[in-house]
Amino acid sequence: MSITYESKRIANLPPYMFGKINQEKLEARQRGVDVIDLGMGNPDQPPAEHIIEKLCDVAHDQKVHKYSASCGIKHLRRAICEHYEKKFSVTLDPESEALVTIGSKEGISHLMLAVINKGDAVVIQDPAYPSYIYSIAIAGGKMRGISSNTGDEFIAALKKLPSRKIRMVVINYPHNPTTQTADPSFFTEVVAFARKRRLIVVHDLAYADICFDGYRAPSFLQAKGAKEIGIEFYTLSKSYNMAGWRVGFALGNKKILKALTRIKGYYDYGIFTPIQVASIAALRGPQECVGEIAETYRRRRDVLVKGLNNIKWEVSLPKATMYVWAKIPPAFQEMGSLDFSSLLLRKGEVAVAPGIGFGKNGEGYVRFALVENEYRIRQAVRGIKKALNL
Ligand SMILES: Cc1ncc(COP(=O)(O)O)c(C=O)c1O
Q1: Is the CB of 21 under 6 A from ligand 1?
Q2: pLDDT for res 238
Q3: Which of 47, 48, 196, 356 could link 289 by a cystine bridge, Cβ 3.0 to 4.6 Å?
């Protein structure tokens, strides 16, 4: 009799759509191809020097190598609350309204386990950051995807969904992968709707600081009454180039945070203390580095968008995020985003993320992540031109 090694919980997960391209990328590299990788949203630059120095200094202290606190050290929770006060004029209590997570991915995934019951519906925008899809499935929830191009369309579609069993709405602006942005009035409407229908709202503000041309991303917690029904995730991954450090925050409603704190207590012992102390240095130290990071992505965005438009692949300038979301040119629409991405890789030596990997409504698109320098992005455009015979 054969042994089954995977639980039904993971065996029944939706397929991982980036696997094929990742495998092809690996094989191309093994053949010596210099692939320009614009696939994953993985920042290519280091954090500011003062943050790294703080990590190294603190790591020499003999007392910091024990297990840390699952909810995060008190001073880091205070630092994120000060940051929210300064940046968004949102007042939070560090004891009950702020929690440190091991990046927002961990926080969001455990949140689903902490609050979703089997069969509960969770509404997300489709396409979406794939972790939402997987974490809802792992928790036994049912994903309800909304396809929308604007906040108004999202609200209209939300209002039309049968409310029975909907437990939670997950939103994410600036949005990965479409780069859509939201304004404060959208959050106000979401709060009003959620209060009326007694829903939980989770806002993922992963691209809070990657904004361009004067646009500033609002916090969901700025909306009146937001704390009564929801929480927001904030992360140091993109704002401070600290993706590998795994530092995020859940902020807002006390009861939701209590449930998340409780489940995290069963799973983890908190982030390595020197990383948490260095995260305080990030939040309280000089903030020029944040603007410089956004400026680097802005320059890359301009090079990519201009380059693609020059070869007659029409794409528009995103106002925020580290991505360009591009509709596949008409002549290649039929082949679908997986095969199209594969073509760009084989013939252009450029890796992109196929839109289908973000949900069924992502089909027909690919996502470029701005994680290579301007020189390499120009080279990528030449590769694309060659691959598509443009
Ligand atoms: C929308 C969104 N949320 C969360 C994350 C993960 O953030 P973290 O590094 O804090 O886990 C990403 C990463 O790309 C993202 O795009």
Answers
A1: no
A2: 98
A3: 48
Token pair of 351 as six digits? 């890796």
For residues 11 and 319, the model is more confident at 319
If DSSP codes are grouped into helix, strand and coil, which group holds residue 117?
Answer: coil
339's tokens: 């095969």
Domain coordinates in residue numbering, the chain: 8-46+289-388, 49-284
CATH number of 8-46+289-388: 3.90.1150.10
Closest approach atom of ligand 1 to CA 106: 11
Q: Is the CB of 206 under 6 A from ligand 1?
A: yes
49-284 in CATH: which number?
3.40.640.10
Alpha carbons 368 and 365: distance in angstroms, whole number: 10
How would residue 390 be classed by pLDDT, with cut points 50, 70 and 90? Answer: confident
Q: State the distance from the centre of ligand 1 to the C-alpha of 240, rounded, in angstroms.
A: 13
| Residue-wise pLDDT tens digits, 280-311 | 999 999 999 999 999 999 999 999 999 999 99
Of 18, 232, 236, 237, best ligand 1 pocket probe by most atoms within 8 Å of the beta carbon = 237
Q: What is the 8-class DSSP label of residue 332?
A: G
Residue 329 in tokens: 């040119």
- With residue 283 as reference, give the H or E element that holds it: helix 273-284
- Residue 385 structure tokens: 């031109």
Q: Is the CB of 135 under 6 A from ligand 1?
A: no
115 ligand 1 Cβ < 6 A: no
**Is there an atom of ligand 1 within 6 Å of 179 CB?**
no
Measured by CA distance, the residue closest to atom 13 of ligand 1 is: 41
Could you tell me if the CB of 248 is within 6 A of ligand 1? yes
- Atom nearest to 42 CA in ligand 1: 14
Instruction: Tell me the per-residue pLDDT of 41-96, one tens digit each, with 9 for 90 and over.
Output: 999 999 999 999 999 999 999 999 999 999 999 999 999 999 999 999 999 999 99
> How does residue 163 score in pLDDT terms, banded at 50, 70 and 90?
confident
**Residue among 261, 220, 212 nearest 84 (CA):** 220
Structure confidence by residue, pLDDT tens digits, 189-243: 999 999 999 999 999 999 999 999 999 999 999 999 999 999 999 999 999 999 9
